[in-house]
């Protein structure tokens, strides 16, 4: 049985709790992938101390030197794409095709931040004073704690680790307890690429223990968190109370708005992909359809028919469309919300059950589920399920569509399916989200574009693109009088 250890100060070490947790395939409970060590608060503190010691030398390297190590990681990973994807499918459950896509997305992000290493800089502006050169440089913050969820166990660590390191910070990564192996694989690549000891540390263990130890440690100057609102909101209050920089990317309840002039075949395909891809376990998943009543019946029939044809099973099998949900707790949450929707009066149109016969017997499988007759006040229309469940709400006008789409606490992504460019532009203007998709699913995000949400989804920062660098650096402004002769300066 493979043992997964923490990586602290350049060495793979057991957590001092003296315990191990089982890393189990969500499609097959007999398939134990590995055992993961359990770190304690003391181990987390040791990781922070190692990162603090390594900071001076790492920050002193030039950004292109740091970028070269990232480039080497990318090169090593590119030779192992299929192997990494297979590990992800076995550990997280998504299909091999989805896992491969996630590995490639992580590599795009690393490659993007390699480029940022060669561009890292501030701006120059004219000064009001003669013979004075004014400019800014961006400097790292120090030690950064990165706390990540299980649903993108490779891409999210990549999109946090790469900008943090290339900007000159040192890092402690705390991955979700459900997916330790993917984090170990990523850190091994950095070790193999020649990253100096202490620059990237990994602690495995529970969020409430090691995550909290990182968030509360005064040497940790930046906390970048992706996960649930419950955890993120509390953690943000703690980190910012001690003036650490903190970003939290949290839940979503993303709508696909379908107007009467939409291409319904295109909308059907995009909604099914958005709702049930990655088993609905994406922060960007389509969880609501807000449709013009004139085309609601036709769209609903198409969605139900298309969804019925999806094959649920082990993500490792080439014919599988939808893998299992990640674990027993997530399975219970999804089934709970299916019950809540029924009690609230939504009409079950498709799915709604656990699949537990035959090849499904040893995994956490749920039939992709669609509810109709949903109203905006129902919990299924407002709360994040984080599973393969879709709610359909019918509306009578464009204004009502916008207001229903916006009537949730979250604000990550939205999509509009329509032909009229005027309506599309008005929707882009009024949709209360960080990312809008036009005639395409609510999911996805490219490395070179900002990613993140408004309202309760996020804390205002964005990730990916140059925004990732902005989070992990602060500007320093320089006034350089290159004659050194002026006595009378403009001091405001
Ligand atoms: P979660 O339970 O909040 O966990 C996220 C991370 O926080 C895990 O590493 C967890 O460790 C850790 N953690 C838990 N309690 C902590 C504490 N008290 N202090 C510090 N860290 C703590 O979320 P999840 O179930 O893994 O992920 C699903 C959620 O993530 C969904 O709400 C989804 O929408 C959101 N998400 C958002 C985005 C986005 O970009 N907006 C992207 C992906 C996912 P343990 O695993 O050990 O508990």
Q: Short summary of the structure?
A:
This protein is an alpha/beta fold.
CATH class of the largest domain: Alpha Beta
> How many DSSP helices?
15
Chemical compounds bound to the protein: NADP nicotinamide-adenine-dinucleotide phosphate
CATH-scheme architecture of the largest domain: 3-Layer(aba) Sandwich
Mean pLDDT: 97
Identify low-pLDDT runs. none
Strand content: 15-25%
Q: What does the largest sheet look like? A: 7 strands, mixed
CATH topology-level fold name of the largest domain: Aldehyde Dehydrogenase, Chain A, domain 1
From the helix content, strand content and strand pairing, which structural class follows?
alpha/beta
User: How many DSSP-defined strands?
Assistant: 24
Fraction of residues in helix: 25-40%
